[in-house]
Amino acid sequence: METELSGLEPGLYIVAGPIGNLGDLTPRAAEILRRADVVAVEDTRVSARLLRHAGSDRPMLPYHDHSADHVRQRLVDRMASESVALLSDAGTPLISDPGYKLVRDARAAGRKVTTLPGPSAAIAALTLSGLPSDRFLFMGFLPAKAKARGDALGEVAALRATLVFYESGPRLSDSLSAMAAHLGDRDAAVSREISKAFEETATGTLTALSQRYADTPPKGEIVVIVGPPGEAPPASTEDADAALLEAMTRLPVSKAAGEVARKLGLDRRTLYDRAMDLKG
Predict the structure, then answer these.
(1) pTM listed for this prediction
(2) How far apart are the first and last CA of the chain?
């Protein structure tokens, strides 16, 4: 069934908008914005400019982090007979915004859900970084408090993948410094104002980039790309002995050897024999 006014089938349409240059709006996305019965937006002031560019006069309804549950439910109810376009302030909805809850509830209610692919700052910055892109993890914004930020970085420190973060200008230098402390001084890239007039990508180590922005916090939307960890040097005999001695204070010899084998990437049988020598 299609709605009488818009000609669109009722349901939810996830619309990726530009991250800077309005020319990046796809023709299909513009068409949906012109035909949807209603457009759910983060900020009506920001989205009004994009809708004017698309030639759309469709009504807007605010939907953002602070929207009450009943606002989401009303949108889901409307999807039974109307087409609802979901638009974020920039880029693809659901990436570091509350849109996933609307998709979840729409699916639970049996509504049609479709997406119109388009720009994403995280992916765009990854392509600009010159860092490995075959395996990456999007981390969003790090916590503001130092301990929580350190804990979050510690969870992914050993992951052999490129890491992608969003960040603000005032926090950038401190965040880069924390990354260097918890991840090691890896190669990284800082991209800002992607697709806009003052687009910039700076590359270097985390420490060097932290120093670069310490006294001059950049403006605009920022993405930080951090390369994967380098290959760890092979464990020495002294490292293995120390790890075995510590593990044997807690575990039987066989389990201690297994734990150290997994931790250091060494042969379990060799470690077991060495553990027996150390125990003797």
Answers:
(1) 0.78
(2) 79
